[in-house]
């Protein structure tokens, strides 16, 4: 029996849609992209023609019973409404990060998915890639002993980035949400839920002007919505203490840092925004060693989280890029901003079950093999 794929519609035909559609068409056969919609008609038609999809209005997609799943690749400000409409129409949804902009909206979407008995999965899905799954293998196997503390540092230059993607200086798009979520999701996958967080923030030069002559917002004035420098301390439920540093007003060259210090070793993880981040393990009285990858998906495999969710639907088991983990990370980053504003420690309200680690090794042609039988054999 061949794979019984889920039919999906792609909503939002921008930059990231190419790699999603290519991954789903060429690698993850469990999802068949059949239709697309973008409020920008030209973009919708370009992607429809390029990938053989049917351009449709969102209303028509929602009313089409043959479409099982919505893949929400719109900008963060549109995530809530697009996802909400899909859930109300009993469609499964996989959404790009983050789940929404407001905490309340995020919770409402989780409640809606449950009430409508459909799945909601949320990126980032790089935590399913070779780099972070290998990091989890190292920690789960006890190779650093008991995790005690962690360090996160992420720097970028939003004078450049946000002039290309203006949502990065708008609510819900700031560095901790846009890119910090990769770091905090990687730690969530390895360490589990956080308990509380305390934070300081700073808003540096909030008044901006569009500088790129190739963009329609050239010369337009805007104001940075949230603190663009944020430092935090997170206490995880397992006792690990993490120091977090986000700075979007530095220089373009990133120096990503994501380290876990354990009772018997140190793990340097590399950039969690990539699928192939190399892990380095330092054991007592030993050389620091590049740890071999234990897992597949080193190449850019965006769409992996959606594909894994589709298999989970077919196999009637929990999916890994879960709404509960996504909401928890979302609440944690909101908690940083809340703490920075109030001067109080923020206690996390949500929790989640750590997703199962992926299977080790590389399985070609799809997630767990090319057919449903081979998938079920694992
Ligand atoms: N660009 C990247 O490298 C990257 C990487 C990972 C994740 N992401 C995430 O993917 C999502 C999309 O990012 P992008 O870079 O493709 O942005 P983009 O601006 O290139 O594309 C977004 C598209 O969504 C469309 N859109 C917005 N609101 C809509 C609505 N209500 N209905 C229909 N279409 C709507 C826009 O017209 C646009 O074509 C974001 O959540 C982003 O954080 C982007």
UniProtKB/TrEMBL annotation:
Residues 132-267 form the GFO/IDH/MocA-like oxidoreductase domain. Keywords: Oxidoreductase. The keyword Oxidoreductase applies. It holds the Pfam family GFO_IDH_MocA. Residues 7-122 form the Gfo/Idh/MocA-like oxidoreductase N-terminal domain. Transmembrane segments: none annotated. It comes from the Bacteria. GO terms for molecular function: nucleotide binding; oxidoreductase activity. SUPFAM superfamilies: Glyceraldehyde-3-phosphate dehydrogenase-like, C-terminal domain, NAD(P)-binding Rossmann-fold domains. This is Oxidoreductase.
